[in-house]
From TrEMBL:
Belongs to the 'GDSL' lipolytic enzyme family. GO terms for biological process: lipid catabolic process. This is GDSL esterase lipase. Residues 261-277 have a biased composition (Low complexity). The keyword 4Fe-4S does not apply. Keywords: Hydrolase, Lipid degradation, Lipid metabolism, Signal. Residues 1-29 form the signal peptide. InterPro entries: GDSL, GDSL_Est/Lipase, SGNH_hydro_sf. Residues 257-277 are annotated as: Disordered. GO terms for molecular function: hydrolase activity, acting on ester bonds. It comes from the Eukaryota.
Length: 277
């Protein structure tokens, strides 16, 4: 990694903006936007759940206009907020928010839940979180509500033209494989085999929901240089040191980056881009 993490992060944002390029015409009604995944994109769902995976206390939100935590795992906005802004749309509401009804449904919805991963056993320590299968069930439920509002064919069109962001995978490492020394998954799989297993499971998830055509897949963050992971696990520490040679700072994300998907199919192009450093 020659580039600095902040430069890398900027590159990620620029890529997202490029992906959005064709759809920010202000005169058109904004596209609907659907968000699935983990804490990188959760904007408050976990606040409605009995879980410890929540961002409802300071310093979360300190740089937002209200300076108060909103459930985003961020000091201010998160990536979905920036995308919504580029779409010329309001921020999507968390699916569990009681405010998500009526016209608000047209904006889309955020189904993400902090702590989840590709695997069902990722994040079990957080107990009550919305795993990806459940997020997809909620999406089905959402579509019924949208149909009731604008009719089935309009709803289908809106969903088909929507922008879909899925951010999954980081927790399968930090909150599963590397969570404790000799974790079940690390005894079960060597790292390269685990990565292959994750990709095959991710592929199945993407196949489940045929009406969902992800526009952006982002995953595989490495947050090994953040202090919690360094404290938990010395393997992270050495990985972090080798990567950045600045072991004492929490360096942002390293990701395969947002992927603009095209044929022959989402999972294949995602899989070809997913690799570990
Ligand atoms: C994960 O859980 C869901 C819902 O219980 C189930 O349908 C799915 O098959 C499980 N996935 C795996 C890989 O076991």
């Amino acid at each position: 990694m020659a580039e600095t993490p902040s430069a890398f992060f900027s590159a990620v944002v620029v890529t997202i903006l490029a992906v959005l390029g064709g759809c920010s015409a202000p005169s058109e009604a904004a596209r609907a936007f659907f968000v699935f995944g983990d804490s990188l994109v959760d904007n408050g769902n976990n606040n409605y759940l009995a879980t410890t995976a929540r961002a409802d206390a300071p310093p979360y939100g300190i740089d937002s206009p209200s300076h108060r935590p909103s459930g985003r795992f961020s000091n201010g906005r998160n990536i979905p907020d920036i995308i919504s802004e580029q779409l010329g749309a309001e921020t999507t509401l968390p699916y569990l928010s009681p405010e998500l009804r009526g016209e608000k449904l047209l904006v889309g919805a955020n189904f993400a839940s902090a702590g989840i991963g590709i695997l069902n056993d990722t994040g079990i320590q957080f107990v009550n979180i919305i795993r990806i299968n459940r997020q997809l069930q909620y999406f089905e439920e959402y579509q019924k509500k949208l149909s009731a509002l604008i009719g089935a064919s309009q709803a289908e069109m809106r969903v088909n033209q929507a922008l879909v962001l899925i951010t999954l995978g980081g927790n399968d490492f930090v909150n599963n494989y590397y969570l404790i020394p000799y974790s079940f998954r690390s005894r079960q799989f060597a790292l390269p085999d685990y990565v292959r297993y994750l990709i095959s499971e991710y592929y199945k998830i993407l196949q489940v929901e045929h009406s969902l055509k992800p526009s952006i897949l982002s995953s595989m963050l490495v947050h090994g240089c953040c202090s919690p992971e360094r404290d938990w696990n010395s393997r992270f520490y050495s990985f972090c040191s080798s990567l950045f040679s600045v072991p004492n700072s929490c360096r942002g994300y390293m990701s395969s980056g947002p992927v603009e998907l095209s044929s022959p199919g989402p999972a294949r192009s995602a899989a070809s881009r997913l690799s570990l450093p």
